[in-house]
Amino acid sequence: MGDNVDMDLTADTHVTEDTDAAGRPQPADFVPVHDIRPDDVVWPSMAWPPRSDIVLGGRVVEVTPLDLDRDVESLFHALDDDWVWQHIPFRPPDPPTFAELMQKRVAAGLFPWVVRLATSYGELPAGAVVGMSSFLDVAVGDARLEIGATIYRPSVWGTAVNPDTKLLLLGFAFDELHVGRVQLKTDVRNTRSQRAISYMGARYEGTLGRYQRRADGTVRDSVLFSVLAEDWPRVRQGLQRRVDGLITPVRDPT
After folding, report:
1. Which of these, 204, 87, 208, 94, lies nearest to 148 by C-alpha position?
2. Is the backbone peptide bond immediately before 154 cis, with ω within 30 degrees of 0?
3. What is the rounded distance in angstroms from the CA atom of residue 47 to the CA atom of residue 49?
4. SS3 for 138-193, per residue?
């Protein structure tokens, strides 16, 4: 369905509360959103899909498309931790189940990336698999996609791994695929992920109520962020500074 237009809001419409039970503004409080790009130009076509042999190389990580035959076993063992799957709808119990899950998601349009260390980092050697991320909800005609299904082994949480990975994936999306929008969503209960997405410079766009079912049967609210093409230069600089700060030792001023 397209946009709803010319809705008949008659005099019978009556709002007695400022907000509803979920704390959202009622229609009487709504201020229409104005077009911030009234002189927008035709956007170039999005390039899709990525080549299966592409390698994205960063300062800390190397990111490659998932190869089911090569990567599933090492990826499963790298992510075999309760904390990793805390906010993920389904935790596979073994590598074959994980492989089957990824096959279904690829068939449904997911484009998974495997994240490896490009150099030794911390106690892990170069080449170690440390996590995965994905392109999903790809809309080629609208030149947009989402980066999500991002999970890492706990030993690299809070390190340069995530910002370096985001730098590579966002750079590829904007500079090579020519998207105009990348969005990111996370569970409202995953405050660590919310902070990480916000800290990378993505803009908070709102919260999608009762959006996606969790593994325990409850339905989560999803917090929505975006990076637009106009934002990318600013976000790129911020991510580069973030990576620099996390991998450059702090010098003793004395």
Report:
1. 87
2. no
3. 7
4. EEHHHCEEEEEEEEECHHHCCCCHHHHHHHHHHHHHHHHCCCCEEEEEEECCCHHH
> Which amino acid makes up residue 241?
R
For 116, the 3-state DSSP assignment is strand
How does strand 144-152 pair with strand 111-117? unpaired
Residue 101 makes CB contacts below 8 A (sequence gap 6+) with 90, 92
**Is the CB of residue 168 less than 8 Å from the CB of residue 56?**
yes
Q: Rounded CA gap, 74 and 220, in Å?
A: 30
Residue 254 pLDDT level (bands cut at 50, 70, 90) = very low
pLDDT given at position 78:
96
Domains of the chain: 50-244 (3.40.630.30)
166 with 176: CB under 8 angstroms? no
pLDDT band at 2 (very low <50, low <70, confident <90, very high): low
Pair of tokens at residue 140: 């080629």
Q: Work out whether the CA dihedral 211, 81, 116, 162 comes out positive or negative.
A: positive
Distances (CA, A) of 250 to 61, 141, 158: 21, 46, 16
Cα separation of 98 and 95, whole Å? 5
Confidence of residue 90 (pLDDT cuts 50, 70, 90): confident
The model's pTM is 0.85
- Which H helix or E strand runs over 213? strand 203-213
